[in-house]
Amino acid sequence: MTARRVASVLRAADKKTANASAVSGAGAQRHERIYQAISAAIIEHRLQPGARLREDALAEVFGVSRTGIRKVLQRLAMDQLITLTPGKGASVTRPSAEEAREVFDARRLVECGLMQPLVQTLDAEGLSQLKALAAREQQALEAGEQSAAIQCSAQFHSALAALAGNQTLATFVVQLCSRSSLILAVYGNSGNLGCDCTDHQQLLALLEQGDGQAAAAFMARHLDEIEASLSIGEAPQAVPDLQDVFAGYRR
Fold first, then answer.
1. What string of DSSP letters covers the chain?
2. pTM score, two decimals?
3. What is the structure's pLDDT at 244?
């Protein structure tokens, strides 16, 4: 599979988000910045799972109308980062323990099964692309950019599936990675989010050697370790100080 087709598969995961964010007029860029600010706050644990997000408070923080905030919240809800409940408003999504187990069970079944086909199709161009994604993840981790590191990890796993040559399964892996990114964001330990990039480098070495069986076994251990690192527990809903959380938004 060419790099162009891999990029097409990865962009498919963002198509719904792009459509949802297509607002008209000069406010489009501002809405995008607000979306990115809230997304990063969730992934970086500055907004905890279950935290309530009041429209009026967000409108005051970001200096936009409640209508504008509502559009951003709707987009976040489509991406399953927040939950909109009639009569209660918005809150940061709290994936259940059962959902987390199901997502990782599905990832093990699909991603491990793709390793053998991958070694049959992986060429120098694809390997170079995977190494570049792993390097970007390493840079994000070293810079303390947890949100970017989780996104790079998801892109790495999605690219593995795309390069295996089955576009249907690749699209499914993109969706699973999106869901597990949220699970990692809300239940992962701060400072230890997403995949260990050294694991990705070891996996690439096995793939480069053409050892699909060893790569599948390594992928299973890799996903097991990610799931085992999660700290899933119940906590009461909180009302965060949004002025404090987004203090750096206005410059």
1. --HHHHHHHHHHHHHHHHHHT---STHHHHHHHHHHHHHHHHHTTSS-TT-EE-HHHHHHHHTS-HHHHHHHHHHHHHTTSEEEETTTEEEE----HHHHHHHHHHHHHHHHHTHHHHHHH--HHHHHHHHHHHHHHHHHHHTT-HHHHHHHHHHHHHHHHHHTT-HHHHHHHHHHHHHHHHHHHHHSBTTB-S--HHHHHHHHHHHHHT-HHHHHHHHHHHHHHHHHT------------HHHHTTTS--
2. 0.69
3. 80
